[in-house]
Amino acid sequence: MHRDVALKPYNTFGLQARATHLVNVTDDDQARAALAYARDHGLEVLVIGGGSNLLLTRDVQALVLRMASRGVQVLADDGQRVLIEAQAGEPWHPFVLQTLAMGLGGLENLSLIPGTVGAAPMQNIGAYGVELKDVFHSLTALDRTTLQTREFTLQECAFAYRDSLFKREPGRWLILRVRFALQRNAPLHLDYGPVRQRLAEQGIVHPTAADVSAAICAIRREKLPDPAELGNAGSFFKNPIVDADTAARLRQQYPDLVAYPQGDGRQKLAAGWLIERAGWKGHRQGDVGVHHLQSLVLVNHGTATGEQVHQLAQEIQADIARRFGVDLEMEPNLY
Question: Could you tell me which CATH number the domain at 72-183 has?
């Protein structure tokens, strides 16, 4: 147990905040002990992994429970399909690379996403046409009320776009480990034009999963700032999903509107396009701003506070609602 801890190293925005208590959890028993301590001392609990989906707007008068459990193991292998389990504290991208090195496909489109394995199911992370639910098998979580473990199947997690049961029941579950159903010779997802284009530029006609991962990493590095160099939490806003009438109205006004059919008549709009079209790309207010290459990313140029980041986000939300009649939802968890 650590007291009065600076949280700047534990959030990718690099925001200054302090926590009254912090515990690095490396196993189930430590998790139970930390939760019991918080309960017995009347402390709120804030769970963090890599701190890549967190916006700290104030000091944390709580017990910060930092998931630091590590370990990856193969649970089953029939020669084609492999069931692999990772502990919640495993950094996400190194885990993806480890599966690729094992000759397993399925996670390549989710390469270079910041954060940890345990945080990934919370918002059903997704990128380049693939979501976590597409390769998810099951997970083990700890009930923070009873301190008992429970297994969750794919269906029980109730995954949706950037959403899950665990996000809808905040404070109830602590994810301990996650299992993925991966494959040798898995079909590749190359629906997004930039990925196909990058592979073609490299002269790769028959790409492997590792090739797709490398292409996506290159694309992301060109567009997204490294949190180690410029504080950020990746994509700050969700892509809004609107009904067909709203999409048609916007497309009539803006023929270059970027939108993706959802199969139910609705359309997923590119939040980055909306923000850029509204003129926010590259905008800066003191040390907080919108990245000059990717308008979905809010950045800390040095000494920005969480309150300042939140204020800018609210200004962007209000402007997008006024201009387009579309509501943007923040991705990071606000504290």
Answer: 3.30.465.10
Residues acting as catalytic residues: 162, 235, 331
Cβ–Cβ < 8 Å for 159, 137: no
- Residue 162: per-residue pLDDT: 87
Residues, the chain, total? Answer: 335
Fold classification of 231-334 (topology level): 3.90.78
CB 20 within 8 A of CB 61: yes
Using the Cα atoms of residue 200, residue 204, residue 209 and residue 214 in order, give the sign of their dihedral.
Answer: negative
What CATH number is given for 2-67 in this structure?
Answer: 3.30.43.10
Number of Cβ within 10 Å of residue 169's Cβ equals 11
| Chain position carrying tokens 């694309």 | 219
Domain boundaries, the chain: 2-67, 72-183, 231-334
Kind and range of the H or E element at 220? helix 209-223
- Residue 275 to residue 280: CA distance in whole angstroms: 6
Q: What is the pLDDT of residues 202-216, one digit of tens each?
A: 889 899 999 999 999
Rounded to two decimals, what is the model's pTM?
0.86
